[in-house]
Amino acid sequence: MSIDERMFEVKQKGLCFNCLRKGHQVRGCPSDKSCSKCAKKHHTMLHYEQVSPPEARQQSSSGSVMTKTVSAAIPEDNVSTACFGVQRRAKQVLLMTALVNVASRGGKIFKLRALLDSGSQVNLVSESAVKLLSLPKYPANVPVVGVGGVRSQIRHQVILRLSSGYSGFESDINCLVTSRVTGKIPSVPVDVFEWKFPPGIVLADPSFNEPKDVDLLIGAELFFDVLKSAQLKLSDNLPQLYETQFGWVLAGALEDSHDEVVNVMCVTNEDPLLKSVQRFFELEELPEDKEPTCEEQRIEDHFCETYQRDGEGRFIVQLPFRDSIDQLGNSRSLAMKRFLSSEKRISNDPEMKRMYQDFLKEYVDLGHCHEIREEDDPPGQRSYYFPHHAVLKPSSTSTKLRVVFDGKAKSNGLSLNEVLMVGPKIQNDLFSIVLRFRTHVYAFSADIEKIV
After folding, report:
1. How far apart (Å, rounded) are the C-alpha atoms in residues 194 and 94?
2. Which of 335, 356, 336 has its CA nearest to residue 347?
3. How many CB atoms neighbour CB 57 within 10 A?
């Protein structure tokens, strides 16, 4: 098993990177032991050896040999990251940086330093920038793969409104929230005193030559919409100018006498099919006795405080809303748009239209729905309109037409599913179901028509 695979397993199992035990992170590890190879706070089995491949050696002008080194650091928050450091006396490469106008939650404009990266499949924003903008964070569960195949899990995302004073460009982008986008860019100061810029050039980042933090990474999703066609060459030994929607940026190699540490950034999304299969096996593995999470305990308390029984013995309980219920969007226009589209499709199929009308009538007869009038709603009444559509399955023996209600739909805010807390798994695990199935001589398989 490779080091990257070991680190991934340790992270997935929630183990300490130092002692490989559960229940704490490396910053609070009680063990006095550390790596036997480098004495740093990680287990020896997770140590990255420094390598010096022959192709990495370069002969400097003084005759000495400078060697590329590859190393990895174990951060204190148990998130695996990989960093390639290249120390050499050679050409330094400037990356495209720009100052971008970003609107806060209250509409105030802030300038964030952005890295334009055509090699990234996702957009990233730093946690500190999100706090500065006071933007709402939405749940996310996105695995991100960096250099060397090292994976990390992103838990939140935000929507940024970008604009430019250079060209009037505006765009909304979805960004994953990370504690740090990348290291300082450039890694060392660049002397531009003798550089001669053509007249009329407006730099997107006037401090492009000073090592500074990056607040935002704009990936390939928007990169080519931002990049314009104009290019200018300063000289043979200097980077090239590229015009973007935010102004002119510089990118390319230049001769430099400093010892250079190169920041390599490559971000991709993990295969969603692989992740789905992994989640299936995690869901169906044998249960372990464990303490409920804070959210699971809140749901249990909520159920005990709000449930009641009706005359037929059915349980009635209020929905377990999170504190983010205020961010529930206005879903009426989206639901109406979906309804009109569905109605147009059904009108071309008389049989499907008849079954859909029968479904609605049965829904009313069973008491699952009743007509409401919006004018009767009290002031400030929160509401959510379920977009729905009919699904026809002629091969079904019980219900050929089903109506699907979309609780994930959202328009200008969160969806209903996103503002509801998620409780623990209450269904029997697959292992118990299989055992119970095998205890009987005969078994019946049936299709559930509806749950009332």
Report:
1. 17
2. 356
3. 12
175 three-class SS: strand
Is residue 150 over pLDDT 80? no
Other C-beta atoms lying within 10 Å of the C-beta of residue 115: 22
In terms of average pLDDT, the best of 14-23, 326-335, 354-363, 406-415 is 354-363
CB atoms within 10 A of CB 217: 22
DSSP secondary structure letter of residue 368: S
Structure tokens given for 115: 């890295």
Contacts 24+ apart (CB under 8 A), 426-429: 429/284, 429/285, 429/286, 429/287
Q: Which of 32-36, 54-58, 327-331, 398-402 has the lowest mean pLDDT?
A: 54-58
| Average pLDDT of the residues in 308-321 | 87
Distance of CA 113 to the CA centre of its chain: 20
Tell me, what amino acid is at 134? S
> Per-residue DSSP letters for 373-402?
-GGGSPTT-------EEEEE-TT-SS-SEE
Which helix H or strand E contains 114, and what residues bound it? strand 109-116
Instruction: Provide, rounded to the nearest whole percent, the portion of the chain with pLDDT above 90.
Output: 23
DSSP assignment of 256-289 equals: --SPEEPPP---EE--HHHHHHHHHHHHHSPP--
pLDDT band at 273 (very low <50, low <70, confident <90, very high): low
Length of the chain: 452
* Secondary-structure percent of the chain, ordered helix, strand, coil, rounded to 5: 25, 25, 50
